[in-house]
Amino acid sequence: MTLKGLGRGKGGLDCKRLGRLDGRGGAALVRRAYDGGMRLFAATREYPGIEERVARGLAGVTRSEYLLLTDVRASDAEDFRRSLDESLRALGTEYVDVLCLRGVCPGDMSDGLREAMTEAKRSRRVRSLGLASDSLEQAREAVCGGFFDAVLYPLNSLSAPEELELAALAEERGVYFFASMPMAGGLLRSAACAMAFLRGAGKVHPLWGAEYPWQIDETAALERKPPRLTRLLHERIEGEREMNAGMLCRGCGECMPCPVGIDIPFAARAGYIIHITPRGAYTDRETRGKMRLAMKCVGCGYCADRCRFGLNVRGLIRRGVNEYREYMWEQGEEWE
Ligand code: SF4
Ligand code: SF4
């Protein structure tokens, strides 16, 4: 399976953050990215209106001129078929180039779900199947299992050696590797460094998040003329790694369960999540409850013992709580 136009190291636009803009503003950024030369657009069903913004932004463009990726959550065949129908309708297309399944462990997929996915590929409504996961084990299973053509996993210059090995393994097995969080959720500041690093990490396709026109322009320019990993950039990357050591939570959940009941993958990444998703998306009762519970962390250290990336989990949770406090204050919401 080959995705036309997706050469080595070519990235695309991660459209998740477009949910922070209104429909017209989001669509305008998609078109700006297309006009700037970007040809891969990653939508999602996780947040309402993203696929619609992508469709609106690309209206009138010949379908074969760009690639569409989207992700769906589905636990069984019926769920999958319904989600796919909804995605195709929202994207205004007859097919998606990559459909990533999210929230499912490859080993736990039912035969019915596998069959429905295979059928979607056979009927050409889906050109390739991927797994979107923040779990290294699940992503590795997808790369090695032979069922998936692609994997969507967080990768950047703060990634651990075993995560970079996964990218190399994907290349060896002919599996497309789409990298989410190429800027480590805002921990990294230089897009040039991030791009140079990922281009050196193998056949990786970064998905760049953007919310402002200047971010689109910067990424599109770098995609057109990718930076080389010079000694200067290499030193800068090393500096960023040192400065941010222990700060990148992947959301894998391997540190769970917490004896207090804290949702660690959410609380530790709360600052990042609230800044990339539609404004006000996390002011609901459930999230308030989660973050209130996060304040009750007793510092037992079980989570840090289980985190294979050696993170300061308690510190991350504290930071998450602080950022959530600020976010709620900005929204004018009562919380504590
Ligand atoms: S340190 Fe806090 S978050 Fe971690 S397991 Fe203990 S109570 Fe839960
Ligand atoms: S703290 Fe570590 S184990 Fe827990 S979700 Fe984050 S990266 Fe995974």
The CATH architecture of the largest domain: Alpha-Beta Barrel
How many alpha or pi helices? 14
Give the CATH level 1 class of the largest domain.
Alpha Beta
Order of helices and strands: EHEHEHEHEHEHEHEHHHHHHH
CATH superfamily of the largest domain: NADP-dependent oxidoreductase domain
Strand content: 5-15%
CATH third-tier fold name of the largest domain: TIM Barrel
For the sheet with most strands, the description reads: 8 strands, parallel, barrel
Structural class category: alpha/beta
Number of strands: 8
Instruction: Catalogue the ligands.
Output: iron/sulfur cluster
How do the helices and strands line up, and which of them pair or pack?
Elements: E1 12-14, H1 23-35, E2 40-42, H2 50-57, E3 67-73, H3 77-91, E4 96-102, H4 111-122, E5 126-132, H5 136-145, E6 150-154, H6 161-173, E7 176-180, H7 191-199, E8 204-209, H8 213-224, H9 231-243, H10 264-268, H11 270-276, H12 285-294, H13 302-306, H14 313-330
The chain binds iron/sulfur cluster (2 copies).
Structure description:
There is one protein chain. The chain is α/β, with parallel strands linked by helices and 336 residues long. The protein has two domains: 229 residues, NADP-dependent oxidoreductase domain (TIM Barrel), CATH 3.20.20.100; 67 residues, no CATH class. It has 14 helices and eight strands. The protein has an eight-stranded parallel barrel with strand order 1-2-3-4-5-6-7-8, surrounded by six helices. α5 links the parallel β5 and β6. α1 packs across α2 and α5 packs parallel to α6. The longest helix has 18 residues. The protein is globular. It starts with 11 loop residues before the first strand and ends in a 6-residue tail after the last helix. The model has no long low-confidence stretch (mean pLDDT 93). Bound molecules: iron/sulfur cluster (2 copies). One iron/sulfur cluster binds next to α13 and α14.
